[in-house]
Amino acid sequence: MQTNLQLISSPHVRTSIKIVSTLNESHQSNHQQQPLSSGKIKRLVLTQEGRTKLNIYPDRDFYSYPRFVTHVDDGFISTLTNLYRERLRPDTEVLDLMSSWVSHLPSDVKYKRVVGHGLNAQELSMNPRLDFFVVKDLNQDQRFEFESCSFDAVLCTVSVQYLQQPEKVFEEVFRLLKPGGVFIVSFSNRMFYEKAISAWREGSAYSRVQLVVQYFQSVEGFTEAEVVRNLPNAQENKSPIGWILRLFGLLSGSDPFYAVIAYRNFKPILDD
Ligand SMILES: C[S@@+](CC[C@H](N)C(=O)[O-])C[C@H]1O[C@@H](n2cnc3c(N)ncnc32)[C@H](O)[C@@H]1O
């Protein structure tokens, strides 16, 4: 099946016109008869310039001390937790990429194994959901020592903007996922500006979503990416009173929520 991609007019993002989409929902019933796709990188999304950061020092230095903060507000976290509840099955194996001291997994759901990854061991050691964790700079090395097909789900929360080699990271996630496994990439409009890549910093909300969609499309075998948005301010912004209150700092807006989701090879049908 052919899919038209939307063109992004940014000097930091390569554009493409068409790709062949991989197995999607309409194919899931007969996926076992189909050859499962390879997970190879088909094309690079970012230009060299798009990968650059204002702070050029190693990311490990930036994250050398723990930050025991939450990076997004309660509304964002609750939307994300609900999404996890909906998409992740209990008793499965989960890898939380670029994680910290907090988990956004539903606290009442039991998973078989939750592995964390990040850059600060002190933060990760405080995360109550992790069975164990790995410290690795993904901008230096994108390969994990886990065997292929180790996880049912891989998560990346409010961190994708720091990846300078996203195509290789998405390729590695594909390798780590079991067929039918899901990769959920969520983000808002907040970031450590100096550490976000140029293609992200200089983008809009729309282009950032498209960027993550393109990261998925760059790897052969991911299903067509789904986009989930929850923009709490969209309604409030229309009210003149809300606008005035916000102008004087009397009403704080909520963090917009975006998630881009795709599956390795096919999207399974989950039981209720
Ligand atoms: C904004 S925090 C988000 C933490 C967590 N996902 C959450 O939802 O609270 C960004 C995280 O990305 C991780 N990170 C940033 N650059 C990284 C890199 N080059 N390699 C691996 N992890 C990185 C840091 O360890 C940090 O925990």
Describe the structure.
By secondary structure, the protein is of the alpha/beta class. It has one domain (2-263): 3-Layer(aba) Sandwich (Rossmann fold). Helices cover 24% and strands 19% of the residues. The protein has 8 helices and 9 strands. The strands form 2 sheets. Strands 5-4-3-6-7-9-8 form a 7-stranded mixed sheet, sandwiched between helices. The longest helix has 14 residues, at 74-87. Bound molecules: S-adenosylmethionine (SAM). Residues 134-185 form the Methyltransferase type domain. One of its GO terms (molecular function) is S-adenosylmethionine-dependent methyltransferase activity. Pfam families: Methyltransf_11 (PF08241). It comes from Cajanus cajan.
Sum this structure up briefly.
This protein is an alpha/beta fold. The chain contains 8 helices and 9 strands.
Q: What's the topology here?
A:
Elements: E1 2-4, E2 18-20, H1 59-62, H2 74-87, E3 93-97, E4 113-118, H3 121-126, E5 132-135, E6 151-157, H4 166-176, E7 177-187, H5 198-201, H6 205-217, E8 226-230, H7 233-236, H8 240-247, E9 257-263
Parallel strand pairs: 3-4, 3-6, 4-5, 6-7
Antiparallel strand pairs: 1-2, 7-9, 8-9
The site of S-adenosylmethionine (SAM) has 17 residues, from loops.
